[in-house]
Amino acid sequence: MNILLIEDEQKIADFVLEGFDALGWLSTHALDGASGLEALGQSPFDAIVLDWMLPTIDGMAFLARLREEGHDTPVIMLTAKAELQDKLQGFRMGVEDYLPKPFHLEELTARIRVLVQRRAGQVPEQLRLNGLELNRVSRKATWRGYSAVLSQREFLLLEYLMQSPGQIFTRKKILLHVWGIDFDPQTNVVDVCIQRLRKKLASSSTEPAPDFPLETIRGVGYRWASA
Amino acid sequence: MSLLRSVGSRTFVFFVACALVFLFAINRSWAIYFSERVHQPLWDQEITQALWVEVADLAQPADALQLRSGLLKRIPFAQATDVRLDIQSADTPDLALPEAWGMHSGGLVDRVAHPEFGPMAQAQHAHWVHQDRHWTWVSLQSHGQRYHMLVDHRLAHQSLARMWAVRDKTILYQLPTVVFAAVLLAWLVTRLMLNPMSRLSQQLNDIGRFHPQERIDAQGSLKEFESLIGAFNALLDRLQISYQQAGRFSSDAAHELRTPLTIVRGQLAQAINQADDHSELQVRLTLISDEIERLISISDKLLQLSLADAGRMPLDAEPIHLSDWVAELVADAGSYAPQLKTTWEGDKGVIWHADRNLAWQLITNLFSNAVKYNQVDGWIHFKLRSAEGCIVLEISNPSDADLQGLEEKLFERFYRLEPHHNRKTGGSGLGLSLCREIAKAHGGELTLETAPGRAVVMRLQVPDHQAHADSVL
To answer: Which residues of chain B does A104 touch, with a Cβ-Cβ cutoff of 8 Å?
Structure first.
């Protein structure tokens, strides 16, 4: 996967690029719209991550030029402006997706993946990683011959973790993404859900298998083991 | 006293008071005018005239009987014993008569000539006293005779008293007219004065509620209001400027925070990933990350609040299955808040046209409050109704906190209950005020109801646009 990141804030670019790197993606960084257009001429990209407020040529102008020149590369807009007007304008100009700052890196990579796959017409029904198979349609998970149909929450949680192997997710992040709540419910709802997942997929024994790829990082959160 | 707080009632009281003063003044001026000093000569004149007329009518110059009966008819209130008559030849000395009748002088003889009734006509108003009665003596000369008449002075008093009675009655009859006139005048004046005022206040209201950019036009309003309107417009300008500044400040601040927050969030996530698993550093970084998330949540709320203040809360309305949301939240509550018994009742298939993100924020925020401020082993009950173009969602829960009298305060920004309550529950103190703004932006309202010994009820009431659209169709 080859991504063009156009972001004028070097420090944001740093960790985003590092994240792409960790996933084994190729990436090019441009600090402004003009050098972004320049980079576009040199190599083809699978997706463009575009900051909306940029020096020289801003996001909107960049987009116009991009479409003018006949590129149909999918674009994700990053912006500090969480206003509806900007969002709508972006969509009108052919932005595929939109992510307000501050964003989670995992969310960005997950969206890029979906965009690219959708563009290629191949959103895989099966997610297969570390020997675990997850079916996105039937919500059926299979691990070492055990299979179980997951509840909506269990599925969302598993998919979320599996999309970014090797990344640690804190409970707070998981709560926000899977349950959509940004308050602390003062209970171990995440842990309970993880326990249930483990039990469902390692069901014959009461103890979950030690090499089950869903890792607990004590006092921090959870991680899908890197392959 | 509260009755007097309206301009109408004050004007009415003012006019009634004016009218009463006026009536009293008329009454007094009559009294002054018709005091005995004025009345006495008139009375003298009246009885002298009576004598003169009757004497002129006499067929026989000395017919005392005819004269007497004529006079009794002509002098008001006169009884037979009130009038004494004598007819003598013209050359009898004047003063001799009352003394001849056994009267004695009680004081000065006040002799007043009445030349209009003949050269010799005169009234002597003197304190002629006889048998404890005071008499007025009148005499005139005609037909070579001298006619003497003594009239009891009581008659003069009676005549005056009758005059007073007539006066009082007249004024009393005028009283309803005067009160009616006062009411009418008060109403007219109040209308004249207050109509421009109420127009002005209507304009002010409209400006406050719908058109904060507009200003009042001083044209066509009362001259006295011009300076008021000018001052008000200037005040509005200043307010708007400072309001915009404050709003822009918090919106700019929230915007400016986003870049560093993005960096910190991203870098922290990397650092957590790169730290040794299960190390103390990793746990500490997680704690920092949780606080950063809180900071992000606060800055998001501040930004949304400042947008709401500027009337620019982004509303990307779409149909939301509110019943499903509530059912889902109640089902999930079993996992986030297993200690609480969470239930719901109400209409299925309620659809609310709202911004998905804002609506979800609103509902989950209300739910989180119900969890936070609950009792140990308490309960939460959702009630959802849709009727008459209105969707009402009530979330009730028992609470240990005494929220009486705080129904409005809880919606203030950064307002928090007593400190110990917060440390346990966290939160920024912005959640409820944001919820209210979200409700308002959707044309609804959010209120809190408390009653001693009863559960706390948070009520969200929003218009049901769908129902409205259906009824229009």
So the answer is: 265, 269
Helices (H), B141-276: 154-209, 225-274
Q: B367-385, pLDDT tens digit by residue?
A: 988 888 888 889 999 999 9
Q: What are phi and psi of B463, to 5 degrees?
A: -70, 145
Q: Does B311 touch chain A (CB under 8 A)?
A: no
Between A168-177, B52-61, B183-192, B463-472, the lowest mean confidence (pLDDT) is in B463-472
Please, what's the b/e burial string for A86-98 (b: 16 or more CB within 10 A of its CB; e: otherwise)?
Answer: bbebbeebebbbb
Does A55 reach chain B within 8 Å, measured CB to CB? no
Peptide bond into B115 cis (omega under 30): no
- Greatest extent of chain A over all pairs of C-alpha atoms, in Å: 62
**pLDDT, tens only, A124-174:** 888 888 888 999 889 999 888 888 899 888 999 999 999 888 889 998 889
Determine the average pLDDT of the residues in B391-418.
Answer: 85
Q: Which amino acid is at A83?
A: E
Residue pair B97/B148 in contact by the 8 Å Cβ criterion: yes
Task: List pLDDT tens digits, range B345-356.
Answer: 998 889 999 998
Pairwise CB contact (< 8 Å): A82 & B300: yes
pTM of the model: 0.63
B447 three-state secondary structure: strand
Residue of A20, A170, A195 to mutate when probing chain B, most B C-beta within 10 A: A170
Write b or e for each residue in B295-332: b if 16 or more Cβ atoms lie within 10 A of its Cβ, otherwise e.
Answer: bbbbbbbbbbbbbbbeeebbbeeeebebbebbbebbeb
How many residue contacts between A and B have a Cβ separation below 8 Å? 117
On the CB side of A128, CA atoms within 13 Å amount to: 5
Quote ipTM for the complex. Answer: 0.83
- Select the residue of A84, A85, A172 nearest B290 (Cβ to Cβ): A172
Contact partners, residue B307, CB within 8 Å, separation at least 6: A83, B251, B313, B314
